[in-house]
Description:
By secondary structure, this protein is an alpha/beta fold. It has two domains: 4-281 and 489-523, Nucleotidyltransferase, domain 5 (2-Layer Sandwich); 338-487 and 529-561, ATPase, nucleotide binding domain (Nucleotidyltransferase, domain 5). 42% of the residues lie in helices and 17% in strands. Strands 1, 2, 3, 5, 11, 12 and 13 form a seven-stranded mixed sheet that branches. Strands 16-17-15-14-20-21-22 form a seven-stranded mixed sheet, with helices on both faces. A hairpin with a 5-residue loop joins strand 2 and strand 3.
Amino acid sequence: MKNYVIGLDYGTDSVRAMLIDTENGQELASNVCHYKRWKNKEYCNASINQFRQHPLDHIEGLETTIKYVVENSKVDPSLIRSICIDTTGSSPVPVTEDGTPLALTKGFEHNPNAMMVLWKDHTSINEANEINELAANWGGENFTKYEGGIYSSEWFWAKILHIAREDEAVRNAAYTWMEHCDLMTYLLIDNKDLKSFKRSRCAAGHKAMWHEDWNGLPPEEFLGKLHPYLAALRGKLYDETYTSDVVAGNLSQEWASRLGLSTDTVIAVGTFDAHSGAVGAKIEENTLVRVMGTSTCDILVASEEAVGTKTVRGICGQVDGSVIPGYVGLEAGQSAFGDLLAWYKELLLWPTENLLATSTLLNDAQKEQLKEEISDKLIVKLTEEAEKIPVSESVPIALDWINGRRTPDANQEIKSAISNLSLGTKAPHLFKSLVNAICFGSKKIVDRFEEEGVKIDSVIGIGGVARKSPYIMQTLANVLNKPIKIAASDQTPALGAAIYAAVAAGIYPNVIEASQKMGSGFDGEYFPQLDKVAAYHKLLLAYEQLSYFADPSLKKLQDELYV
């Protein structure tokens, strides 16, 4: 008898559902739903790094996409055994005592502080600094040590602390907070007891300072020194966490009816998109999986024996079972990857967007057509011209920190910078420098892992950039001086979620076996061009010098690390 599962992948701009045949990983149906409020830039203010999303965007997207794949796959709904959800993170949401997102309650429908605080929201920089200061100096356990030793403004506690201080109404109305992946999982299941609900090991370990060494989350004594609200919140959260091969519950009758499924369908514990994507790409020990999109996440797995007691400084954490149960998952990443190039595109399109509207030479339809044509062809043309510029030619040096630095050594206060500009600098030169910058940022991550004794034997690229930009991938192979395999699937996070779902449903005994049967193959590989590796290394040294100039603390951190 055939068995099928659904992987639901929440990205920054949209949610995708995929219905998968568990026998071979074949996609039978998929559907994407873009968040309409997010698309209209509601509840966001980029000037202060505020990025919030309304829960309705996610709930509507869930219903639309899953209903579509169930109906259009022509599969018997009784054979759809399980669903697993992956999301961006850390993206916490305030909820009421019954788990209702606060933004769905009266009086909070349009309050950004009552909504999901998206991963890329950096409004809590000051709070993250306070957490780091306290963790290092309060006299007890340093609760950041398994999260790279530096707590980020992108993560759970910093965001909640910021909202608690900024908005008394939200602070008083929110019974507790949930990660996005936990909330969407909770929404679907029949068990509505928040205390016993199974929270994601991946989310808790990488973003909320959860660890078995101190029996879960940081204690009230520590959290209370930051704010009494956090101490009170501690008891309304959780002690245990679970890997995504575990069943969170059965699909509730309400959602079974809405989705056209059965209450026999089990819902797996939720997870984060990058970790799920690594599973979809058949990650193995000592393989670095780079999830490349708006930002990047870099995922490794290593045996507990190989990691031992070492803690890798300046990364996004090391968590037992966050990727593959029985292995330690290690995470790093860049706060901006595709976002840096998107910023440059938007910058160059300013005249098109703002001056074309006032032109009397074209009618409105022609103006729109021209705008679309320029927008569609801009990056393609920039890429063509950038490829023609020799590596040895004088090009600007840029930093990839347009949205702060995630790793190594998180610092969301810093900004990007560009040096070595001249009258000879043209738009393609700047584009080339930005591509170089995102690749150099990637190289610093690889270097940190290897300097800390974590072996990297191979690299896999997944995501839109990996699939669609040969120029970027070839540059990355040259900068890393390592071959990079490209996953054939465009949707490895959803595929990884489906793999977790298959294990939770008992179709496979473990994630490794399921991944080998259902995971993505590879449809390309980039090899370092040996005649260019040395030239890129020379540019990397210039990138490092600019890094130290833009962030003097970085040199001090480097010296402390390798003294």
